[in-house]
Amino acid sequence: MRKIFLSVSCLAVILTLTLCSSQINAQAPAISKKYSEQKVYDLIMRYNTSNKYNGANAAVSKAFSRDFPNAYDIEWETNDEIYEVEFEIRNRDFKAYYDKEGNLLIYKQDITLAELPANVKKAAKALYPKYRFDDVDKIVSANQTYYKIDLEYGEHEITVYVDSNGKQLDNVPLY
Fold it and tell me: pLDDT tens digits for 128-170?
């Protein structure tokens, strides 16, 4: 009887871990295609230079809860045109931008160096061979995924943006 109990307990633990794992990996929210990449860039650049205050409207709050249901440590800022939210999921930092209707425009998440695609890592290393990787973020927009890579060499620091094909990008908003 004891062996059966342990087997059922083990099965319950495995099932719980599987369900939790699938919930974490299932978080890939849909990015709105309402705006072009250039328009998103313009909106966020305008947001970055505007006066901001804390808060989110009901539509944005509802969309965020749907897109990132496991988020915690949530902090909002807005200029009434764009809503920026910083939060965590599983001890990872995220930042997302929404318009006032609740359309997700773009989001960024911290990733480890091991999660950085090999071709992206190789491209950054080719651009700055003496520099070491310091911090890496994955940025997801409607049309592409790219990476913000902070590199260091002695007292020098540089940030490079590379798309998933390994091409350096120049015209990206400051996140």
Answer: 999 999 999 999 999 889 999 999 999 999 999 999 999 999 8
Alpha carbon distance 32, 142 (integer Å): 6
For the sheet with 92-99, list strands across it: 72-78, 82-89, 92-99, 104-111, 132-140, 145-153, 156-163, 168-169
Task: List, for residues 8-31, the tens digit of each pLDDT value.
Answer: 333 333 333 333 333 344 558 989
Tell me the backbone φ, ψ of residue 35, rounded to 5 degrees: -115, 150
C-beta atoms surrounding 172 within 10 Å: 18
Please, which contacts does 76-83 make with residues 24 or more away whose CB atoms are closer than 8 Å? 77/52, 77/53, 78/52, 78/53, 78/54, 79/46, 79/47, 79/50, 79/51, 79/52, 79/53, 81/43, 81/46, 81/47, 81/50, 82/43, 82/44, 82/46, 82/47, 83/56, 83/57
Distance CA 44, CA 153 (A): 30
Q: Is the pTM of this model over 0.90?
A: no
